[in-house]
Every structure is written in structure tokens, then in C-alpha cells.
Amino acid sequence: MFCFQCEQTDRTGQTPGCAGARGNCGKTPVTADLQDLLVHAVKGIAQYASRARVLGAGDDDAARFVLFSMFTTLTNVNFTPTRFVSLLREAEGVRNRVRERYEEAARARGLVPEALSGPATWSPEPDLDGMLRQAAEVGVRAGLDVVGPDVVGLRALCLYGLKGVCAYAHHATVLGLHDPKVYAEVEDLLSFLADNPTDPDQLLERALRVGMLNLDVMRLLDAANTGTFGSPQPTAVRTTPVAGKAILVSGHDLKDLAALLEQTAGTGINVYTHGEMLPAHGYPALRAHEHLVGNYGGAWHEQQVEFARFPGPILMTSNCIIEPHLSYRHRIFTTGPVGWPGVRHLTEDFRPVIQAAMAMPGFAETEEPERAITVGFARDAVLSVTDRIVDAVRQGAVRHFFLIGGCDGPTPGRNYFTDLALSAPQDSVILTLGCNKYRFNDHDFGSIGGIPRLLDLGQCNDTYSAITIALRLAKEFGCDVNELPLTLALSWMEQKAVAVLLSLLALGIRNIHLGPDLPGFLTPNLVARIVDEFGLRTVGDPAEDIATALGRR
Ligand code: FSO
Ligand code: SF4
Prior knowledge:
Structural class: alpha/beta
Keywords: 4Fe-4S, Cytoplasm, Iron, Iron-sulfur, Metal-binding, Oxidoreductase
Number of helices: 20
Distance between the termini: 48 Å
CATH architecture of the largest domain: Up-down Bundle
Largest sheet: 6 strands, parallel
Radius of gyration: 23 Å
Shape: globular
Strand order of the largest sheet: 4-3-2-5-6-7
Number of strands: 16
Bound molecules: iron/sulfur/oxygen hybrid cluster, iron/sulfur cluster
Pfam families: Prismane
Function: Catalyzes the reduction of hydroxylamine to form NH(3) and H(2)O.
Subcellular location: Cytoplasm
């Protein structure tokens, strides 16, 4: 195995990458290799699918299979080798169907179908050993000796950004929003990667295309979420337990949460959010369920302690799952792209979760005093007070905005983001996005002229809100977004964050502070180039970064 797709990659060797008996996330070599092979297989589907689509014979089901398959390979999503073996077999069937559609469409137009090579010709070996032999040829470092580390790094940048795009697009498709233009672009970009490109300039240009595609996908996801559940509104979320039986829902998928809320209605079971599910409370159609009583715990990396303590079952709907302790392995369930060997996987019917909740004690008493945190400052809520925000800036009451977005994690370097938030001056506003807000969202930041100093824009899935707000403020002030009194600090962990970073770079947003470490797949040459072309910065000393940010105005 070799994997360097996330921030927690092993950095003890000469070059970053998990290559031992297990990845730092707990991924085994078998799972890692099968994931590489699945990526190879979906590239092969995309080679035919992109050509078929040009001929008017697009296959949207195949595109959705690609999105889902790519999502399963994200960090901390699916660890079940048998699941990958079945996805690989399914991939061959999908590829054959798309190939036939392409060849028929070509012949119908009097064209000779192209004879494709590379991943398009792949077929799975009949057994696991054979598949693992195939995987050894197609890992992310394939061709390293010939093309060198910079090209490998740029291919990885495109691929990992695309993985994030596919995950976000999958979230939108489950809510019924499909855009064939998005499918076409995903297929095009995967097909491009299938050809093992070697030109660094072209690869960087495609990476920015991944970023632009991600903007479209995030807009689609925003429309899917708000169209289904309404626009988030500022909402106080209880963070202390309520007496009664309980289910905990983690991950990002609002549709799964909605289905569970419907299926638990009238049972007397209380539902709690965890991790990235916290912003769900802001959506009117979800908040309408009175048994969605609060949030329990913090960010994903705390789950082993928190899940063990929670007196009910847990449902994981998307990233980020960590190896479940034996103490709760019998009462954690996965759904959608998520999986862990031996953990029960459910599809739409959550009765086993409800039965598990009924069999458990739940919380014996309601914890007093009640504590709460406020969420729900998505684009509509913030833009509805744009006039007040603009006035506050013009009158000097608000001097600066700090957008602290991205993922939390256990490494000490992430204290930067905590320190940045806590030392930001009193006349600044902090916007949060993603799960790293848990580092400081129980702190009372106060308010400025009625505007709370801490505004949570939502999950990392809600990046479109943040971009919309930034662009609207730039318009109000008649300036470029880079001239706003705004500092972006992005805490990355996995491939959704890579997609978001590429979107910001594609929009021309400069001076983003990225941390706690730069991606291991970016070589020193690539870092130098990106720093030079996009003004990307690493996180430094929070006090100095604040001083620089304030001095820049
Ligand atoms: Fe966090 Fe995990 Fe949203 Fe990430 S739960 S870490 S980029 O997957 O998804 O912010
Ligand atoms: Fe290592 Fe991250 Fe890959 Fe897991 S996903 S094997 S931690 S680089």
C-alpha cells in the first residue's frame, strides 16, 4: 500500500505517505490497494462515459456509480475490503454497459468507435489475490520513476480534488439534484487522468478546473439542502443531554438524518447530532422534529470516547469513521458510502437502530444547567443583515473577518486555529465552516452591535454559503474579494478540503493560510509554485498572522 491523500499521512519517512502495515487512519493494505484499483476502474468507466456523453448517449446511472465509488475511497469513509471487491465487480459491469452505449452511439453516427487503452480495458481478476496484483500496478505513484514526483503530485492533486467533488455531488444526488453537466465534467477529468498526463502546466490547469467544477457542485448541494429542508436560520442547539432513550447521528448526510427522524417519530426516542451533523439543527424542516433534541460531543476524532459513553446506538452517514471500540461495535451502524468490517450496514430502513435504542437505557436524567451553541448563519441569514454588517465595517465597529474553515483533527498543530479564534481582536467577526469549529464554539465571543462575533456557516458541505457571502460583501464594498478585510484560515484533513481549496484558488482568492501541514503529495517544487502563483501561506504564529491581517488593510 501507499497512500498520501490526507493530512494525517505518515510523515516519519523521507517522503510523506502511509506504506506500512496500516495507514494512520487504520486502513489496511488490502483496503488501500482495493481502493486504488476501484479508482482505476472508475477511470475506465469515465473513458467510455465521457465519449458516450459527447455523442448524446450519456449514462447518468453510471455517473452516479462513479460518484459513489469515489466517495467510498475518501479518508475515513469505508474500510471494508469485501465492499470494495463487490464494487470492483459492479464497476466492470457498468464499464461494459457504457462501452456498448458508446460504441452503438458511434456506429449510429457512422463513426468507427475508438479502441481505448489503459483503465478502459481493465477487468477484475477472479480472486482477491489477483485483484491485489492488479492494484500494485495502478497506485497513485504509478510511473513515478518515469515522470518524477512533481507530476505524480499534480496527478494526486487533481484526483484527490475530484474525490472531494464526487463526495459533494453524491450528497446532492441523494437529495434528487442531478446535473448532467457536472457528470460530464467529472467523466472528462477522470478520463484525462486515465491517460497518465505528464505536462505540469496542463495538470495544474485541470486542477483549477476541478476547483471550478467543485463550485458548481457546491452550488448544487446548497440548492439540494435548502430546497429540501429550507434555508438555515440561527438556532440555539442544546449540548446537554435530555432524559430518555437516544440515537446519535454523525457525518454529513441530511437525508439520512431526515429519514431517521421520520422513522423515530412517536417512538419517544430522542435524536442527537454529532460532528459535522451539528448544523442540521438550523434547517427548518429538520428542526421541526421535536425529538431532534440536541448535539452530543465534538468533532470526528473524539468519537471513540464519545460513542463509548453515549447510552444509545450511533448511525454514521458519511465521513469520518474511526475504528469502533469493541465497547460500542455492536451498536454502531453505517449507511451510504461508509463501512467498517463487522459493523452492520443499513440502507434507508433504520429499524435495527431503533430496536437498539429501545434496548438501551438512554440518558437517565436531563443535565442542568442546559448549555447551547448557536448555528444556522448560512448565506440567507447572513445576507439578510448585509446592510448592518456593511455599516458596522464602515463605522469601524467591525475591523476584520476571520473565516476559519475545514476539519478538526487530533494533531497539536491544529491549536493554531483555536488560538487564532480566541486571540482575534474584539472588533473582529469569526466565521466558521466545517468541524474545526468544535475547538472553540463553546466559547462566548459576545457580539458587536447585535451581530454575534461567532457566526457558524455550517458544514464543510456549505462552502457555497461562505463564498456567496464573501462575493456579496466584495460587491457591497466595490472591491475585489482579496481586498476585503477578510482572512481565510483553512484547516484541511481529507479530500473534501482539497476540493474546497482548489475552488478558492480557482476563484483567485489569495493569501489563504493552510494547515496544520501542507499536503504530503505536494513536493517542495509544487509548494513553491503554488505559493508563488496563488499566494498560498502555511499557518504560522497566530498572533503574527493576526497582526499581518490587520496591518494589510
Ligand atoms: Fe470534518 Fe471529516 Fe467536513 Fe471532513 S467530519 S473532517 S473535510 O470529513 O468533512 O469537516
Ligand atoms: Fe494514511 Fe490518510 Fe491514506 Fe489513511 S487516508 S492511509 S491516514 S494518507
